[in-house]
Amino acid sequence: MEELKLSDWLPTTNKEVKIRGWDALDVILFSGDAYVDHPTFGPAVIGRLLESFGLRVAIVPQPNVNDNLQDFVKLGAPKLFFGVTGGCMDPMISNYNANKKRRDKDAYTPNGDIGFRPDYATTVYSKILKEKWPDVPVLLGGIEASLRRVTHYDYWSDTLMPTILESSKADMLVYGMGEQPLREVVRLMQKGVPFSSITTIKQTAVLLDADARIPKNSNWEDVEIASHEMCLKDKKKYASNFKIIEQESNKLAARRIFQKVGDKTLMINPPYPTMTEDEIDASFELPYTRLPHPKYNKRGPIPAFEMIKFSINIHRGCFGGCSFCTISAHQGKFIASRSQESVLREVDKVANMPDFKGYLSDIGGPSANMYKMKGKVQSICDKCVSPSCISPVICSNLDTSHKPLTDLYQAVDSHPKVKKSFIGSGIRHDMLVPEFNKNADPKELDDYTEEVMTKHVSGRLKVAPEHTSDPVLKLMRKPSFSYFHKFKERFDKINIKKGLKLQLIPYFISNHPACEAEDMANLAAETKDMGFQLEQVQGFTPTPMTVATVIYYSGYHPYTLKKVRTPKTRKEKDEQHRFFFWYKDENKAWIKNTLNKLGRQDLLDVLLPAKTEKWRKNKPSGEVKHTFDDAVPFNKRKNKAKFRSKKKRR
């Protein structure tokens, strides 16, 4: 690998600008993250993309907002615009945990140090830039702006906020993945079109003044949603908005959305079609150094970079549409897959890095096993309004073949410098169960599962059933927990057949909308019965632009407008979460008292039996022993039936 020079990175200081021989800049990007020049870090992708258009681009990573604001003026004013992003994660997620406590580490900062990213970073940066440079356009992008483009609930301030365009005073917002709209923005500006006149580009949003004329576009239909002021007065109106927003965000022929915000009008243009293979290949093959900027060499490693340093992203998008997840809201539900050739070229680059030891940490994406999956008949997808392609059932038009992915894994492993490639991204285990994925070839599903288990797992395979309660899972847009039982059966058979010692590690969520204490008690009992002591667990965190968050704030499901209860108090949340850890001595008395109050002796007998049980934690051999009746799944037994009947009577 050639030795890199400082000028191989985008410039971050005046000195670096001068090294390139530039006397002015076309675009300056401000980011809440440290600058890592890698294709999985959004600011680097946008910077390299703009550079490929022939623009002179600089990036100001993690500008200081607590001094004289020198970072916002040191590079002067760009000729075209400022670009602003809060970073690869919403800054409030980066800064706080589910209990609103400050985190002690920031994964996107050298050494994991905190204090380098302000709360609501996109708004903070944008307001400063508009004060310092009022005549220079400010364009917002990234996940914080994307998911806050319309009236949204902010969990950390416990308020309903207007579009981030209003609070930030920015001129335009690009939502989703920004390559396609930015290309058109730059093209028009280079033709001399004033930024204020660029209002009809797909996948952008602008806030029009009261006296502004609504731009016409004969190709688009329009829809108006309840105003921000109406949402403040009526939670049901706010909830009803979301169905329109989500459906239009996921349609290939979407309507333009309008919303009144005070005396202004928010206009959200329809999204671009999913990126083609050539387009996404081109984005991943821009001239990244794949390394953090040298300015961080003495500050310590950047945790997020260390995690993905030797990983390969093979696609974008997720058609799962989970109610608590923001991936499809930002990346879209349609999958944009890279060509095998592009992936292998990146593998070769990584394999030739000086500190590569032969192990790729991940060959994946938002969901590892959605590569190359798309509709069989495109015209059906063109008309689809469903937010998920696999909930409540897998769409009969969805091609869920895992063969291209299995072939890709084998091609990657054939590289002479690759000793082993791991699958670190989450795998949709439900799509590997023939009883759920009824249109797939069962042998093909088994071949993929066996390929992953025998060659791409280091001791533990992580999957995300999320819950055991069917009503909660239905609201989550996840399949019945019975399919996790089915998957575990196949997992155990392969474990034994191949003489492996792999562990299955399931993820679960507590205090999700519709979840009651008894649901968590049942989750604890059912997973214990399967031989699990849970460790990969989390409490539900309401993030902007998800169904679950809309329910959390409003109390209504946006698609049915029926009331749904959600645990909200700290006490309720802590108690639900506590059931995950039934095996800890400090929880046993509390569990006994709680289940006695609920009249759930059946669950108490499972979690804390009076007699000493011969119970062992789920072992990697697949030969777990229980004292319970293994022949009958827990969700079919009498105590589960009793549990359901009690809920029905309530």
From TrEMBL:
Stored SUPFAM superfamilies: Radical SAM enzymes
Gene Ontology molecular function terms on file: 4 iron, 4 sulfur cluster binding; catalytic activity; iron ion binding
Domain Radical SAM core as annotated: residue spans: 304-584
One Pfam family, short name: DUF3362
Superkingdom, natural source: Bacteria
Cofactor: [4Fe-4S] cluster
Signal peptide: none
Alphabetical UniProt keywords: 4Fe-4S, Iron, Iron-sulfur, Metal-binding, S-adenosyl-L-methionine
Residues that, per the record, bind [4Fe-4S] cluster: 318, 322, 325
Free-text remark on how the cofactor is bound: Binds 1 [4Fe-4S] cluster. The cluster is coordinated with 3 cysteines and an exchangeable S-adenosyl-L-methionine.
Family: Belongs to the UPF0313 family.
Protein's name according to its UniProt entry: YgiQ family radical SAM protein
